[in-house]
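Intended use. Records like the one below are meant for learning the mapping from a protein sequence to its folded structure. Do not use them to infer anything beyond what is encoded.
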Amino acid sequence: MHSVNSVVIMAEDRIREEIITNFFLNTCQLRRRMNQNDLYVLGICAGAVSDGADVIPLTTGSVAEFYIEPMLSCIGDVDIMYHFSHVLAIPAGYTPPTHLPGEFDSRVKVYEVVDSEFPGYVYLVKSCLLTECVDDGKYNAVQCKRLIAANLGPDDDHWRHGPAIAYSETIAAIPTDCYNLRLAESHQSIDAVRCIRCLIWPPAAADWPTRHRSYGWPDSATVDRVVSNGCDVVGVAHHLSRQDEWTSKCQCRMSFSRAEIVLLNSWMPSQQIVYHMLRIFMKSKQLKAADHTGAGTISNYHIKTLMLWASELKSRSWWTDDLNLVRICVQLLHILAVWQTNARCQHYFISHCNLFDKL
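Structure written out for the chain above:
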């Protein structure tokens, strides 16, 4: 009788999983037109440029990473990174560039990115001043006195959210005859992160483009695109450095937001849905890391890292054959549990960086 009951329970579980899978597959449609978040971000970016400031904004986070639009929104805060056109970062030991993209000014301050004692965390050292020649458009470098710069984070801890300035605004209603959308007034949270642009893929992640990938994800074209976008440096210190007055003000972190946008947009719809499901589960259950790790709440970045590794280490058939979104989520959560037990969450881009050692 016990075995019969087990079979019945398994069959019922399978039916429920199929219902949930079909629901998500049928409701998570592709985004066919701009929604309210898109319009809001577009307005912020246009405002930054029209104000005459030498600011180059980039939409990051959920708005940029998701191309699905489920019934329960996968979009949280609006995340924007911005860099100034007169500042540039290059890895330590690299020769200053002689050509720059058109977004940069004719005079550009260059900072070298120097590794700190913590993988993924760096210092910015003032290196030289680039000046564009009128004749040929090339930049000449004049060496400067080498000084370690203060990081880029907000000074007021009240507004600090990691490297971001966190604030909120009320978005006015948008008439439907303008955009063919019915958008009511709403309250929007914004994370604005100042960064310094680095056009070169960082040496700390040098093995990422060439490491062996058994299942061909990401493909070579996607890898090339990621590498060509370089990275950014944002102003936040390692948690062990925040008690020290000097390092808390000078230490920065490497950001791979540009790479993540490209990679997540190369996912299959089923992978984006799984990522969405895991994020919702993580937020609703307030997942905690294992006690012995000294970790706090599991963050979106841990879930993103889990998904990036799974996308690379699992075959395409694992994601598509006999598709069961619930079982995929359960298996991935089991992997996360193993990571917690071992107190090891390897950064997707920087192989010797453990994301659990910062919690």
